[in-house]
Amino acid sequence: MVDIVTFNKNLKNGHIENCYLFCGSDEFLIKENIKTLIGKVIKPDFIDLNYVKFDGSSLEDFNTVINACETLPFMSDKKVVLVYRASFMVEGDYKNKLSGEFKNIHSYLKNVPEHCVLIFYCLFKSKRDKPGKRIYSLDKDICVVKADKIRGYQLENKVQEFFHSRGKDIKKVDLRVFCNLMDGNNLSIIENEVEKLCCYTYGRDIKREDMQKMFLSNNEEDIFDVVNAISNKNLKEAVHLLNELIYGGIKINYILTMIERQFNILFKIKLLLEGGKQKVEIMKTLNIRSEYGYNIMVQQSKKFTLKQLKRSIQLCLNTERNMKSLSIDERTELELLIINTIA
Predict the structure, then answer these.
(1) Topology, domain 150-206
(2) Are 246 and 252 in contact (CB under 8 A)?
(3) Which residue among 20, 129, 154, 276 has the highest number of C-beta atoms inside a 10 angstrom radius?
């Protein structure tokens, strides 16, 4: 099993396997790397002729995938067959009709034709899920890529690519500040924020003040207010502030990510304070740059017990899982989160 970094190194060195399985909780990250892989295998002019994809969640017969793999490429050395959202690769999804055929599917993957690159990807329901027995058994015969969240310099390099693709340069120091403000590490959300920042600074260079104005004042302080209303058990105010954020065009997934992030920070602050740590040390440990923001969070943390904060974080994770796995109204789910957190 390889990680995203190793996978990309192998691609740069021209090492391409006949069969891949990508697994992880960030679909955007998986899709981006599959797109890069396809670009290495097929020339752009021949992609329409040599690229076939299937929806794994509705696929009823694996023979259609086999037939696509066995068919020779047209005017190209290779073809790509993609089976996306292949939940049958993970044990426990008994609703999928192909789940019972796993052994036969596994057997075929050992003999994928040389002219074909067969790619699967399956999504974990939450960040805490790990590869199971099926994925580990596949790892012996095909290339399994675990698409974990990228962090540190890897994240900074990826975010810098987002800026460069939009014709924007950003200083390394400012890039690091931006990545810190984007804590949560969801690439689809981060790219949306890059787009907003590039539009905001159209025709000029990006300044640190722009980031603070857009992402600290507008978003983080609004989340401060929502969490503050929750800590005061003011349900009406919390729901009102939530609706204001939604009406303001902030995506529900982003709001949830920020609320979860806020509770995580409050938990860590309270833990460090109870451990006798001082202000300067806490700010350095948690990479909090704003003294004003730190003071607000200290006051908020005092309104919760550690047990309440742990419960709030778990409720956020449960809400995130429900949004990904159920056909529900996301706004209602977020309102239920606030109600349950206050209860």
Answers:
(1) Helicase, Ruva Protein; domain 3 (1.10.8)
(2) yes
(3) 20
CA 343, CA 338: separation in Å to the nearest integer?
9
The per-residue pLDDT for range 221-267, each reduced to its tens digit, is 677 778 888 888 889 888 888 888 887 777 888 888 888 988 999 99
**Quick count: other Cβ atoms within 10 Å of Cβ 341?**
23
CATH 2.60.40.10: does it fit domain 221-342? no
Domain 2-146 matching CATH 3.30.572.10: the answer reads: no
Provide the residue count of the chain: 343
pLDDT tens digits, 273-321 = 999 999 889 988 888 876 767 877 888 898 899 999 999 999 999 998 8
> How is residue 226 written in tokens?
């929502």
**Six token digits for residue 192:** 């949306």
Q: What distance lies between CA 235 and its chain's CA centroid? A: 29
φ, ψ of residue 23 to 5 degrees: the values are -140, 145
Domain locations in the chain? 2-146, 150-206, 221-342
